[in-house]
Every structure is written in structure tokens, then in C-alpha cells.
Design brief:
eight-stranded parallel beta sheet; 42% helix; 373 residues; globular; binds ligand AFQ; 15 helices
């Protein structure tokens, strides 16, 4: 067990990297996909099942947990790891993004944001200082700076103004975070799709100095082509010896394209949320289990998958329990999706390590082109 937080790059293949982040609570193999556990649970999954899918780290949510059950209560009960029975690393987002996408009656000033809870309408305030305090109370291992993520499309002035506010908030976050051995603070690059603002943001963050650097402000409706266009340059300005975390991404092909452009960590609600809405990701594309054509199909979702859903159940059964709104439907489909996402990550880690990432990508895309799934 290390007492410090450190990142070891093991190999690169083009811009793609593979390595290990060492933390006191365990190691994180990169590139890493991080399941989202918004309200102290990865929905429909026991923590041991999340681990069984291959996850080394999961996400918690400052915004949700500060409202319910509150960070102070979780702290009194021993912190988020104990509370949710997950003893490996936890990364928590800083809450600003969720306020802008979920809360009511928001007021944004230099100090921070005030807002009304989407749960009971109570008034709350988030500032860089309060966000650091909440993430410390939760006990998360990787803390995110408090930032502002502008909705796209936005004009250049708005993007510059928002990015510069986030950089001032990054400095305040670092100041409030203090010196916490074994815990990491990640800065978040902003700047929309503008190459010059992305570079300015990266330079500002490097000047302050962080344990890792996130690429924020993407996966907000710009589309894959624009996102990849930004990722063709935005990570280049970030330190090579620190982890790079692309926030909120994404579909399997988004994840592969991001890793090919130098990203080490990603998170997305897609595999878990889709598991509850019957959307199943497989190596040959998406299966919508709700479709009547599965009603008599004795085959597994994916013959090549070793997850409990594919090992023990037919499409016909999964179609039935989905249509019947049975709880086991969300459990099995979520498990499968998270297992598949982790299988993609393991495949990329192996391929980058072996210098065969080009071939791996070609195979990944070729498989998905095939017809009936
Ligand atoms: C889905 N697209 C997207 N998500 C973004 C997110 C959220 C990432 N996911 C966090 C988990 C979800 C609930 C609990 C934690 C972003 N977060 C921050 N702080 N800044 C962004 O620019 C930022 C940008 C993002 N874009």
C-alpha cells in the first residue's frame, strides 16, 4: 500500500498510453473506465459486483450527496467508502456541472453558485472552498476542482469568460484543498472547442500545479466529430507524466477514440443508465432487448461474453424480465454493460502495452460493422 498518489506510465502506442495510478486504497489501471455511483451506489449493482466487472475506481457525486444524506452525515458515519462498502479508490466530481444540469433557480457569481435543491427546493451554495470541504468530508481519493462548464454552442467571449472564471476557481480550489498526502486534486481544463483557450487553460492549470488534469467542457452536445477535433490538440498541452481524465465520456467508440488521442481516464452514466432502459452494448453493436424479435431467441446477448447475463440467460428471458419490469432486468443488463466496457478497457491496455493498438482499433470497428445483433 502506498501512502502517496503516483502515476506510472508503462507504455505508449502513438498518442495512446497505458499505466497505473497508485493510491493508498489500491491501484487504478489506465486507460480506466470509472462507473458512476451518483447517490453512493452504482444503480442496480452491489459493490462486489462492480468490482467483479473489473472496475478499479468508481465515482461519487458531490451535488447529490451534499443534498442527501449530506456530506456531514456521511462523515459522521465514517466516510463514503465505509458508507457504501467500497474500499477501493473513489473520485468525486466537484458539483458545479450537476448544479447547472439539475438544480433550479441558479445564481452564478465570482464567489460560486447558489441554487435550489431539485429534491426539496431548499437553498444551497457551492463555492470552490465548500466543494473542497464536501469532498474532504466524503473522504474521496481523487478530488475535482470546482469549475464552470459552459453549455455549447456558446460564443467565444462567453467561453473565454467562463474558462477564466474556472481558472480562478481552480486556484481557490487548490488553496482550500491544502496538503493532503495520499489524496489527489485534479484541475479541469476548459475552453470549449477553441484551441487557443484550451492552451491558455492548460497553461493556467500547470502554473497552479495538480496531481492530474481533466479535460472538461466536452460531451455537452457538440457531437463526436467536434469532440475528437478538440481532443486532437487539447490533451497535448497537459503534462505527459500526470493522468488525463476526459469527463462524461462516453459510448464505446467515443472511449476508444479518446484513448487514441491520449486520454487515460473516463466516466459515463451510459452503461448503467442504458442497463436500466434495455439498451445493451455488445462487441457487434447495440441490442435493444425491448424489441419483440428477442421474445423467442434462445441465444445469449453475446456468445463471446463471460458476464452472468450472457453465461446464464437467453435473450428471450432478458426480453421477458425487461417487459415485465422485473428488478433482475436492470441488474443483469447493467452488469453486462459494465463488464463489456471494462473488457474494452482491458483490451486497450493490453494492445497499447503490446504496440498493437492500431490493429486492435481496426478489429474493434470491424466487429461493430456486422449486421444482425
Ligand atoms: C456527460 N457529459 C459530461 N459530463 C461532464 C461532467 C460530469 C462528469 N461525470 C461526473 C459524474 C456523474 C454524476 C456523478 C459524477 C463534468 N464535470 C465537471 N466538473 N466539469 C466538466 O466540464 C464536465 C463536463 C462533462 N460533460
Amino acid at each position: 500500500m502506498t501512502e502517496r498518489f503516483s502515476f506510472e506510465l508503462k507504455a505508449t502506442d502513438g498518442k495512446a498510453r497505458t499505466g497505473v495510478i497508485n493510491t493508498p486504497r489500491g491501484e487504478i489501471r489506465t486507460p480506466a473506465f470509472m462507473p458512476v455511483g451518483t447517490a453512493a451506489t452504482v444503480k442496480a449493482m452491489m459493490p462486489e459486483s462492480v468490482r467483479a466487472t473489473g472496475a478499479d475506481i468508481l465515482l461519487g457525486n458531490t451535488y447529490h450527496l451534499m443534498l442527501r444524506p449530506t456530506a456531514e452525515r456521511i462523515d459522521r458515519l465514517g466516510g463514503l467508502h465505509k458508507f457504501m462498502n467500497w474500499d477501493r479508490p473513489i473520485l468525486t466530481d466537484s458539483g458545479g456541472f450537476q448544479v447547472m444540469s439539475l438544480a433550479g433557480l441558479r445564481k452564478l457569481t465570482e464567489k460560486g453558485v447558489t441554487f435550489k435543491s431539485h429534491i426539496d427546493g431548499s437553498k444551497h451554495e457551492l463555492t470552490p472552498e465548500r466543494s473542497m470541504e464536501i469532498q474532504k468530508l466524503l473522504g474521496s481519493d481523487i478530488v475535482m476542482c470546482f469549475d464552470e462548464c459552459p453549455a455549447l454552442p456558446a460564443d467565444r467571449d462567453r467561453i473565454a469568460e467562463s474558462m477564466r472564471l474556472s481558472m480562478r476557481w481552480a486556484a481557490r480550489s487548490k488553496e482550500a484543498f491544502g496538503d493532503r498526502p495520499g489524496h489527489a486534486l485534479f484541475g479541469i481544463q476548459q475552453g470549449g472547442l477553441e484551441a487557443d483557450f484550451r492552451e491558455e487553460s492548460a497553461e493556467a492549470l500547470k502554473e497552479i500545479g495538480f496531481d492530474g488534469y481533466a479535460v472538461g467542457g466536452l460531451a455537452v452536445g457538440e457531437g463526436q466529430e467536434a469532440m475528437f477535433g478538440c481532443l486532437d490538440h487539447a490533451p497535448d498541452h497537459l503534462p505527459k507524466d500526470k493522468p488525463r481524465y476526459l469527463m462524461g465520456v462516453g459510448k464505446p467508440d467515443d472511449i476508444v477514440g479518446a484513448v487514441a488521442r491520449g486520454i487515460d481516464m473516463m466516466d459515463c452514466v451510459l452503461p448503467s443508465r442504458s442497463g436500466r432502459t434495455g439498451q445493451v452494448f455488445t462487441r457487434r453493436g447495440v441490442v435493444n432487448i425491448k424489441n419483440a424479435r428477442h421474445a423467442d431467441d434462445p441465444r445469449p446477448l453475446d456468445e463471446a461474453c463471460s458476464c452472468p447475463a450472457c453465461s446464464n440467460y437467453s435473450r428471450a428471458y432478458l426480453h421477458h424480465v425487461y417487459r415485465s419490469n422485473e428488478m433482475i432486468s436492470g441488474m443483469l443488463l447493467t452488469w453486462h454493460n459494465l463488464h463489456y466496457f471494462q473488457e474494452i478497457m482491458q483490451g486497450m491496455r493490453d494492445a497499447i502495452g503490446a504496440g498493437t493498438f492500431e490493429d486492435w482499433q481496426a478489429e474493434f470497428h470491424a466487429q461493430r460493422a456486422q449486421g444482425d445483433i
